[in-house]
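Researcher: Structure prediction, please.
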Amino acid sequence: ETQESSSTKQQSSEVIYDSSGENLVLNSSYEANSGDEPKYWDITDGQQSQYSQVTEPVRSGDKSLKVTLNGKTITLYGKTSQDTASKAPYTLSVSLNLSSFNCSGTKCTVTLGLTDDNVQNKLHTKAFTIDSTFPTNTWVRMSATFDNSQLGKLSPFIEFESDFSSGTVYLDDVKLEIGS
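Model: Predicted structure follows.
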C-alpha cells in the first residue's frame, strides 16, 4: 500500500502534504521546530542526537526529519488540529526515504497507527515489513486506513521497531484524513 504524490499546500508557516482533503496533522512536513524537536511531535526512545530536521532529502517544503536507527524502538507521536469526532474511517500516510538500513533478522518493521490523546493506548496499528527488497534512496508513500470507533482526540504515530539494528530514514508529508 504505497503511493506517490507531490502536491503541497501552504498553511501558515508550515507546509503540509495535500493530495486532497483536509490534513489533521500539525507540522506534518517537519517545517517548524520547538527547541530541539519538531513542533507538535514527541519522540520517544530517541535522544536528540538520533534525529534532526534537515534540508536534504526533502519530499515537500524545506525540511524533512532525519532519524538514525540504532536497534532501539523509536516512536514519533504527532498532534492533530481537532478532535476526531467522526466514526468514519481515517487514513494515516507518510513518505519515507530509507537511505540505508540493517535488520537484526531478515526483516524490519515500521508501524503506522493512532493513539488516544494521552499516548497511553495504541488503538489502531498497521505494521509494514521492510526487507532487502525495499527500495532505498527514494521516497515511498505508506498508508493505512483504520475504522474509528473512538471519539475524542486521536494522535498519529510512526514507529521503527528495535529490529532495525542500524540505518537512516527521512520522513516527510505525514497526513491524517477523515473518510478515506
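Model: The radius of gyration is 15 Å.
Researcher: Thanks, that helps.
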